[in-house]
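Re: that chain you flagged

S.,

Sorry for the slow reply, it's been a week of failed gels. I finally had a moment to sit down with the sequence you sent. For the record, here it is as I used it:
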Amino acid sequence: MMRGNVAIITGGGTGIGAATAVELASAGMRVAVVGRRPGPLAEVAARIAAAGGEAVDCPADVSDYAAMERVVVDTVARWGRLDLVVSNAALHDVSSVASGDPAQWRRVVETNVLGGMHVVRAALPEMHRQGSGHLVIVASVSGRVTYVGEPAYVASKHALVAFGECLRQEVSPHGIRVTLIEPGLVETPFIDNPFARELKKTVTPLQPEDCARAIRFAVEQPPHCAINEIVIRPVNQVL
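Prediction finished late last night. Pasting the structure tokens below so you have them in one place:
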């Protein structure tokens, strides 16, 4: 079902994005790996090629809408179609409301919220033309609960969850599926901070590959079936 289909994955150089690119390529999908840093993207594309898959690295910043339009245009020009977008690019911030850096908050919102909206907006015309497609938005359990220590990040993920539900209601009549993936603590560069290190004292993090398998599960469903939401936590994570 997935062989020969085409995916764009943002935040594809590391963590969940990289694991998802490798997972989907192993199922026969052709993958455009998008991110800000060329080096990690090239490494992921090379890893996929070495395993017999097909991938292209696309350095671009999701906060730049014109860049996302170019990624979509180039991907369709290369492979003739666009079946899947995995919107995964994100920034993190550990702070308090009283002492946080507003400039960093802006970067978090521009990447996590507007970045996700940008890549979806850029992809929709092609999916509407095809009458099919799948939009996967990587949010977080932080988009379902609130707590002290990551206010901008929590707010951004709540916004993504709301956007994903608005999106589902809009595009479902057009044959386009929407899935929200909401992981708990995942072993990625994000958790190299005091807040996450404290949580790791009691919680064994998920691996990026765990999230990639959840995404593949949603994508592999038959066209009439939409997995709208997957929450995936470490067994011993309560929040």
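What I noticed first: The longest strand covers residues 176-183.

Talk soon,
D.
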